[in-house]
Amino acid sequence: MPRIRQYHRPESIQDALQLITNLEVTTAVLAGGTNLLAQPDTEIDQVVDLQKLGLNKIQLGQKEVTYGSMVRVQQIVEHSQSPALLRQTAKFEGPNTFRNVGTMGGLVVQADWESEFFASLLVHKAVIRLLTRDGELSIPLRDLTKEKIHNSLVVSVIVESGGQGAHHRVARTKTDRPIVAAVGRKDESGEIVLAFCGVDNRPVVVPEEELKNLNPPADFRGSSSYRRQMAIILGQRVLQQLVQ
Ligand SMILES: Cc1cc2nc3c(=O)[nH]c(=O)nc-3n(C[C@H](O)[C@H](O)[C@H](O)COP(=O)(O)OP(=O)(O)OC[C@H]3O[C@@H](n4cnc5c(N)ncnc54)[C@H](O)[C@@H]3O)c2cc1C
């Protein structure tokens, strides 16, 4: 657990932003805390807990769904009007004890390389709404970097709804984290977007013709060439399902 000097629980977005954008101290934003509190030997001047900001709502629009950054992963699993692919892949984000704590904002900031849910956000063309010292920004998830989030507050994540999704994976067991996973979505215009996890240091969008050029990191579960080959096979399965 990190050593924390001050704890704040602001009740307005303005107060939270004032704390988060203070460059004179090191600040950590606390959402679910699953990742943050698991970091040993770090020193943090202040922690800004987001739980009182009312960012835990899901709003349905005509062609999009907006998730507040404090929406819990399990809320998405249970939300029957959310896109099916998001609900299905959210279920793979750890056991339900973890999903009841982890948040949309935390997942987006972490960009875990094995997150099938993050890959699904990519194919739903997620846009991240951020508040920074200089005002509000909307950034496509595929262009988001840790530097852009530094000293800013993720307020919400907006995804396109509609269309058709598909998801295929290889893992050591049915519920284990994936070695490689592929997700795809065909939107209402017929455009298909493919995204993968387990093939780069974060989940990525990869067009089918570029899969053979992937150079995935290797670990004890799969070499680089095994992961590349799995990405090609899983990508084909996703495409076959979407063009039926
Ligand atoms: C044991 C363990 C298992 C894990 N399993 C998985 C897994 O299966 N899948 C997976 O994808 N990840 C996993 N992770 C990584 C991580 O915990 C998850 O991505 C998690 O959902 C993060 O959500 P959180 O709300 O708990 O984030 P927190 O731990 O609260 O925050 C994570 C990071 O995001 C920042 N942050 C959070 N919200 C905001 C915001 N609104 N604005 C700005 N910055 C923000 C925090 O400052 C921190 O740097 C795991 C981590 C651990 C320790």
Say which molecules are bound, naming each kind only once.
flavin-adenine dinucleotide
- Uncertain stretches of 5 or more adjacent residues: none
Overall geometry: globular
Helix and strand content put the structural class at: alpha+beta
Count of spatially separate domains: 3
CATH fold-level assignment of the largest domain: Uridine Diphospho-n-acetylenolpyruvylglucosamine Reductase, domain 3
Distance between the termini: 49 Å
H and E order? EHEEEEHHHHHEEHEEEEEH
CATH architecture of the largest domain: 2-Layer Sandwich
Q: With helices defined by DSSP (H or I, 4 residues minimum), what is the helix count?
A: 8
Question: For the record, what CATH class of the largest domain applies?
Answer: Alpha Beta
* Strand line-up of the largest beta sheet: 4-5-8-6-7
Q: On the 0-100 scale, what is the average pLDDT?
A: 95
For the biggest sheet, the summary is: 5 strands, antiparallel
- What is the percentage of strand-forming residues? 25-35%
Helical percent range?
25-40%
What is Rg?
18 Å
**How many beta-strand runs?**
12
Summarize this entry quickly.
This protein folds into three domains: 3-49, Uridine Diphospho-n-acetylenolpyruvylglucosamine Reductase, domain 2, CATH 3.30.43; 58-160, Uridine Diphospho-n-acetylenolpyruvylglucosamine Reductase, domain 3, CATH 3.30.465.10; 164-243, CO dehydrogenase flavoprotein, C-terminal domain (Enolase-like, domain 1, 2-Layer Sandwich).
